Known about the structure:
There is one protein chain. By secondary structure, this protein is mostly helical. The chain is 71% helix and 0% strand. The relative contact order is 0.20.
Amino acid sequence: MNPDIIELVLITIVTAATPLVIAGVGELVVERSGVLNLGVEGMMIVGAAIGFAAAFLTGSALIGALAAIASGMLMSALFGLLAIGLAANQVASGLALTILGLGTAGLAGAGFVGQKRDSVPHLYIPGLSDLPFVGKLIFGQDPFVYLGVALVAGVAWFLRRTRAGLTLRAVGENHASAHALGMRVRRIRFLAVLFGGACAGLAGGYLSLVYTPFWSPGMTAGRGWIALALVVFASWRPWRVYAGALLFGGATVLQLHAQAASIGLPGQLLSALPYLATILALVVLSARDRRGSIAPGSLGAPFVPDR
């Protein structure tokens, strides 16, 4: 196969994986704190709608990205108020957040359906970006791709090497013991939820600002649920989430080529292939490493401090 074609396919895989990387690593931090937020899909779709609207009206992709982050944080703050402040059921609150997000995005983006704008420019380093095979893949991506890698590396370092990261993990493992030791459990969890919301909103903004630079209802296409699955089946490990996202990107590219080749399988089955392949591979991966796939001990459990 032509090296240029291979490079183009690899670039497409990385691009398809980026929103999952950003949303997945944000949700990983949330779950490490002991909170289960099933509203990732809702926060992503709101981020896509608000981010595109802000970028279209101002002409600035940066403002669009910041608006996407802010909208995701606002949605997650609402979830935090319910699930952390009022100790409501986290599963029900997350599902309600997704439903709210879908409706809010449809309303906010109603006036922008069919509108288009220029995509975010890619990095170009003279000499390096022109290298054969790896030039555009490593030195010619959009800024969000590098931000995704930096987020994964930063979260991995934060959780393992910093006092704050160890505190967050302690809260996620046993919130009662952490509270007894003087840790501010609800504050730590709320900050983690805000971070997850910011990442989910940015991931949605990436879809409408870079991946397909226009707004369309339902453009997240279940990616929020895939991000949730990646966190669980990747054993709550940042770099494994990144690997799973690349797997999803590869399956997405494969099903697009399969549809273009008209291989005779139903289009619906081919469209489901990326989701099936990602979940199946990560199930196998987690089954081979049971010792490292234990969920945080207090995941999903509401915390009510002693009065």
